[in-house]
């Protein structure tokens, strides 16, 4: 069931949303299809694989290449990123002609929570939670038996048996820092089946399981052009996206600034 939105957040607004190109992580594929239904103002969408999160420098290089390509269009008012800072993988991105818009978020969980404040509060209350979402589940990139088997197969292509066991043990030790599988969804058609998968992973790991129905407000406003400075970072041409150490998470900085 599609979550209800406040009247102020429905698509039928007095002012039409700006036309923009969307560069999005595939973790949001079904959520964007749901919450941007009939969004004709999104003139182009490009999807990027979740695995790029493991390689922040490659993520930045890939996004910049596509940013440059869509920036050449003449029918846009902005370029929108369905990303967060993502391990600094988006830090340094710079638009040439059109403003760049990105939610103030460390990672995608903020968009499932609805705000950076809600995410921070949940992290404060539950520092040992590991977040599961439909997209991460489908890609089998969450702690569970399939992730471990996939990792073993990938490592076998590069390392000998002793190294593989050491690296897998390192992965298990990282998982041991968590004890609650927290599942988040935004009402997509696979929400129930992926909730069941997260529950089964929790049982296999010996973790507790908790389900939270997410808040689509931040993702919805990103997709429908409701961009205020408190929740979104807007980068004008001639500037680049930088990391901020305060609650803003991001900032605009001159393109000559060195990444730290």
Task: Spell out the key features of this protein.
alpha/beta, 3-stranded parallel sheet, 10 strands, 260 residues, 5-stranded mixed sheet, 35% helix
Explain how this protein is built.
With 260 residues, the protein is an alpha/beta fold. The chain has two domains: 140 residues; 103 residues, no CATH class. 35% of the residues lie in helices and 20% in strands. It is built from nine helices and ten strands. The protein has a five-stranded mixed β-sheet, sandwiched between helices. The protein has a three-stranded parallel β-sheet with strand order 5-6-7. The protein is globular, with a radius of gyration of 19 Å. The termini are far apart. About 3% of the residues have low confidence.
Give a summary of the structure in a few sentences:
This protein has 260 residues and is α/β, with parallel strands linked by helices. It has helices at residues 29-35, 56-71, 109-113, 116-125, 134-138, 145-156, 161-175, 191-205, 217-223, and strands spanning 20-25, 42-48, 78-82, 99-103, 129-132, 180-185, 208-213, 232-235, 239-243, 250-254. The protein folds into two domains: 7-108 and 217-254; 111-213, no CATH class.
Taking strands numbered 1, 2, ... along the chain, how are they ordered across the largest sheet? 2-1-3-4-8
Count of DSSP strands: 10
What fraction, in percent, of the residue positions are helical?
A: 25-40%
Rounded mean pLDDT score: 93
Largest β sheet strand count, sense and barrel closure: 5 strands, mixed
- Uncertain parts: 6-13
What is the approximate shape?
Answer: globular
Radius of gyration: 19 Å
Task: State which percent range the strand residues make up.
Answer: 15-25%
H and E string: EHEHEEHHEHHHEHEHEEE
Q: How does the helix and strand content classify structurally?
A: alpha/beta
Count of domain modules = 2
| N-to-C span | 43 Å
The DSSP helix count reads 9
């Amino acid at each position: 069931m599609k979550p209800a939105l406040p009247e102020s957040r429905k698509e039928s607004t007095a002012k039409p949303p700006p036309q923009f190109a969307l560069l999005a992580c595939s973790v949001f594929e079904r959520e964007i299809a749901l919450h941007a239904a009939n969004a004709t103002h999104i003139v182009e969408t490009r999807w990027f694989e979740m695995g790029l999160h493991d390689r922040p420098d490659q993520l930045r290089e890939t996004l910049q290449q596509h940013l440059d390509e869509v920036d050449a269009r003449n029918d846009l008012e902005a370029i929108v990123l369905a990303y967060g800072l993502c391990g600094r993988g988006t830090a340094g991105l710079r638009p040439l002609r059109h403003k760049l818009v990105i939610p103030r978020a460390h990672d995608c969980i903020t968009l499932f929570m609805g705000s950076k404040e809600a995410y921070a509060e949940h992290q404060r209350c539950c520092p040992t939670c590991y977040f599961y979402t439909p997209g991460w589940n489908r890609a089998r990139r969450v702690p569970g038996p399939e992730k471990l088997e996939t990792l073993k197969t990938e490592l076998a292509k590069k390392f000998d048996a002793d190294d593989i066991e050491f690296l897998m043990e390192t992965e298990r030790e990282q998982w041991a820092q968590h004890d609650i599988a927290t599942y988040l969804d935004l009402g997509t058609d696979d929400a129930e089946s992926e909730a069941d998968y997260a529950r089964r992973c929790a049982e296999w790991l010996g973790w507790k399981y908790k389900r939270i129905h997410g808040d689509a407000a931040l993702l919805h406003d990103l997709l429908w052009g409701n961009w205020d400075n408190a929740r979104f970072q807007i980068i004008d041409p001639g500037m680049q996206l930088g990391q901020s150490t305060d609650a803003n998470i991001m900032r605009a900085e001159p393109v000559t600034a060195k990444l730290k």
